[in-house]
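Sequence in, structure out. Go.
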Amino acid sequence: MSNNKYLVEVENLQKWFPTRRTMGEVFKGQQRYVKAVDGVSFKIERGEIFGLVGESGCGKTTTGKLIMKLLDPTGGKLIFDADDVTHLDKVGLDTYRQNVQMVFQDPYASMNPRFRLRDVLEEPLIIHKKGGTKAERMEMVKKALNEVRLQPPEEFMVRFPHMLSGGQRQRGATARSLILNPKMIVADEPVSMIDLSTRAEILHMMKTVQRELNLTYLYITHDLSTARYFTDKIAVMYLGKIVEMGVPNDVIDNSFHPYTKALITAVCEPIAGKVNRIKEVPIKGEVPSAENIPQGCRFHPRCPYAIKECWEKEEPVLEEVEKGHFVACRRYKEI
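Output:
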């Protein structure tokens, strides 16, 4: 194992998807792109839970898929365990996939409905040639189910996905990601498909497993409340860029970027004896298209504090405004 304290280092990562061209663009040799991820940089320490938060379409899931190597980057660099894994051959990719696993948003959609849970968990063992015999693989399946608290494992192994509750399916999906003993798990909205009453239980289970196995998590969510409880550090994404990053309490209690402030304001405020009060969000309009990103600060069309230089000058970069707290905004001091 490397002595580098960072397990993952993302440097200016980009993913641009080409759009369908018009006849005129074909003749002119022009090509437009949807810039889903447009220059993202961050580092994740070993044993850390790093959260990516933001509204739908900001690029957080695409970032997770790039780190999982489900997509090839358009540009930038990805370092894993001190090795450059931006571009890998088949052998290198097989090894990488054993070390980095993913928990998808919808556990039911990510499981074969014709497989019993034991078959779902055995499949990655067969693909990666782990466990010499069927009996050895079944012991590994039981161990993984015990780790996610699906007990007794013999009772759950024979069930089909539709015979499990939402929480049990997510535990099964987590067990599948653990069965290859990975170093890191990419968790994409792992509790968004689960009842509110079960979310804390699932997150507590995931955190317990993370501590027991010294795992590193990339936790992708739009829910600031779970990010605050679950993560060690969070990065707020907007339109393919990180606009604020730091320790959860600092970012949520003392946010600098107007977009982060708007996300926090949008959270319902519980009031005793009354229906949750929804506060007015200080930003207006819709997120601009990732195909036509505004010049200058990409948030300026919706920002109530924007001034002329926000769209005339080049885009602001992440700047450390307090120890370990970074923000990309020219006007954070005046807000």
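Check: The longest strand covers residues 6-18. Residues 115 and 315 are 49 Å apart (CA to CA).
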